[in-house]
Every structure is written in structure tokens, then in C-alpha cells.
Amino acid sequence: MINSRRLRWIVALASGLLAQPALAHDPVFGIGPHVLYQGGVEVAIESAAEKAGPEKEQELALELTYGLTGDWAVGVDLPWVRKADDGNRSSGAGDVALFTKYRFWRRDSLGLQESAAVLLKVVTESADSTTTPPLGKGVTDGIAGLTWGYESRKWYRWASVRYRYNGTNPAGVDRGDMLRVDLVGGIRPTPRGYLEPDTVWLLELNGEIQQKARLNGQDLADTGGMQWFVSPGIFWTLRNFAIKAGVQIPVLSDLNGNQPDADYRARLILEWHL
Q1: pTM of the predicted model as reported, rounded to 2 decimal places
Q2: Exposed end of the chain (fewer CB within 10 Å): N or C?
Q3: What CATH number does domain 25-273 carry, 2.40.160.40, 2.40.160.20, 3.40.50.150, 3.20.20.140?
């Protein structure tokens, strides 16, 4: 016979395991293979800011994600942006984006999970592109990505690559496609239980390589180039709530022509899993 004390302990443990959501970790600036459980809903509020010379941009976005299956999620980004450049300012709704992520591989072992996923995203031309500076691009862009992740009780590793197809805007400028590369490491200094606050420290290496823009078949001089960032960050969770924050520090810039180098980029994300 199982005594009452042991029975209560077993019931509490089982209840905690069953109640635990699939709140996996993803990087702040890169992407990871995390997807929602079937029927799960994720609500995220994201605040971002960046500065490059006289150009400043702030964004506040609402992201909604739904788990179609345990390996396939779909969602939408609804941004509001504010831009400033050489004394001109504009603000309003940004370009709405639709995205999907599919985890095609997963391997579990004791205290360890590895997985890989593909990502597709469509950034619409829904924002106003006639303001100064413009709030939108005036054209629909597409993003395809591949990501791999390693999660243990203490150590985290991610790697991802994304290719962004930038369409030709109404002025006839082919804006040049972009390749993004992300390498990320993370550490949980002290393993915690589900009911306790949990902290993971992150360090990312983020690279952007953009082709030159073209007009009438000719390259535009002050476009394209390469930038790399080192990005410290933190991922803090409590049950089904998470806070992610980080800052991108430029370490290498090789931009073509007369373009302002990035001064900084910062991001804060609040997530709820329902």
C-alpha cells in the first residue's frame, strides 16, 4: 500500500508535469526551432529600437502565434513604428507580416533536446510608404529560414540562416536581397524547477550580408554591404510567462559607399503561453 504522504507527492509531481507548458527557449535576435504545442496560443509584445547615424527607428509590435500541431505553428506580426531622419519624423502602423514554422526533426534524450525547423515569412506592403521617412517599403518581401537548436539543463546552442527576398519598390529600385546568419550560445547558471523563476544568459553573433540595390540594371553605390554584431541577452521565465531582452553591439561594418554604420539595436519581448 502507498501511504498518503507518498501518494500526495506523486499526484503533485504528475500534476506539475502535466501542467507544464512547452515554453522552450529561442534567441533574442536570431531564430530557434521552438514551436507551440497543438492548440497552444502565444501572445508576445515586442519593443525594439535602433540607431544608425541620423536615422532612428522604434517599433512596438504584437505577435500572435497558434500551434496547428505539435510541430507546426502559424502567426501574425502587427507592428507600430516611429521613424526619424534628418529632422523628419513619421509614425503609424508598420507592414503586417504572416509567418509559419515547421519543426521537421527532433531528438530527445535524458535532460537534452535537439531539433531543427524551417521558417517562412511574408512581410506585406500594408504600411504607408509615402511619408518622410516612409513607414513601409511599398512592396511585399519574403523570408525563408533554417534553424537548429540544442537545449540541455545547463547549456544552449542555436544556429540559423535566413534569406530575405526584397522586392522591387514602386520607384523601380530592386532593393537587394539579404542573408542573415546567427550563432548563439546560452547558459543556465542554476537549474530551477518549473514553479521557480528561471534565468538563461545568452550571447549571440549576428551577421547581415546585403546585396547592392539596382535601378535600371545598374548598381546603386550607397547600398549593400556587411555588418556583424555581438549581442548579449537574457531569457527569464516563470511558468508560462517569459521576458527576453538583448542589445546588438556592432563589431564589424563593411557597408558600400556613404551609409551610416549601426550605432546600436535593442529589443525587449514579453511572452505569454495560453
Answers
A1: 0.89
A2: N
A3: 2.40.160.40
